[in-house]
């Protein structure tokens, strides 16, 4: 007889960890375990700049949690708490931040990818040496993955030679259907900041309407799964504590503070996807390894779910089977 508490439980019940500026108290892993978290994403940032062919990483001026020493220690502590790890390098683009619109001039692309390969292979070797469960070869580089697919296939081949675990790429929500190398990976990774509703004429007002508004996106993702025959993981998902947070964070960042809408958006997403066989789970964005002062909830980073209604929703889904 199946245990009803584990039946239909989300397989990957993850959070993205914010790399801290300095060593953190391991007690925060106790809070994650109590929340039902089973997986964590560790995020070592690298830095690039338009017009420059270099990718800078593990620099002395970076935060402790972004450098090798902090990355290794965080992975060690996660494993000590029986949490599986996704090592997920991110690029930060000087002057822009988000890497989605980052482009490299054609006459510089080979040199840039040589440097990017060095960055990714460095962390692939760390991932292999520490028995990390999954490794991401990139994050939201939506223009570079479309323009230079052969460079990515070459990178995947190189990573396979140094890392024995599962490979994924973390695609932006508006870019996953344009990627031609899903066959070379073990999972489809999507940063699932889908704006709801897809049809802008639709009005959302409550939990059921938000759930229903997922239908067009669910159909698209199901088609992708059938086409590439790979399970789908949300390498990031999350919502701001803002009015209408489910509309897309870039559209609501100036809206009023609203914990209820953030919680509704979390609840709707997890309620919809937990029953889909092709969806393996996801990693909420994002978890700070420190206590968050109440006055920072909205002012500093509205994606924070700690201490808000959304944390209770996350715990509900991560600790129970339906």
TrEMBL record:
InterPro entries given in the database record: GH (IPR017853), GH113 (IPR055151)
Pfam family, one: GH113
Source taxon at top rank: Bacteria
Name assigned to this protein: Glycoside hydrolase
